[in-house]
């Protein structure tokens, strides 16, 4: 149950700091935790005002598609564990899907693994990114 993460990710300084603190508080080994630890160690960290609008940051709402199964595009928001509500599309950054999306750009494909199998989603658009105060890049 490991999240597959690419080497190159972009995180804001504030997201990096908050996620580092969050992981320091984790007593249980959740599925996305180890991948998130690795990502924090290898990410390109930038000031919030310098992050491109096409990058998935914390609280970004993204439009995704399954590159294998196709189907209708769907939306997810990457959030902190206490804010997660999967039925409403709010997924924890500590989940395999949330950890796989964070720091990627529009056009890239997030890939993850769970006990239920492999998953993937291509990022079609960042619909909202807090650092840009509104609509992101398509």
From TrEMBL:
Domain Transcription elongation factor GreA/GreB C-terminal, first and last residues per copy: 52-126
SUPFAM superfamilies listed in its UniProt record: FKBP-like
Protein's UniProt keywords contain Ribosomal protein: no
InterPro entries: GreA/GreB_C_sf, TF_GreA/GreB_CS, Tscrpt_elong_fac_GreA/B_C, Tscrpt_elong_fac_GreA/B_fam
UniProt keyword Protein biosynthesis, yes or no: yes
Molecular-function annotations in GO: translation elongation factor activity
Keywords: Elongation factor, Protein biosynthesis
Pfam family, one: GreA_GreB
PANTHER family: REGULATOR OF NUCLEOSIDE DIPHOSPHATE KINASE, TRANSCRIPTION ELONGATION FACTOR GREA
Record's protein name: GreA/GreB family elongation factor
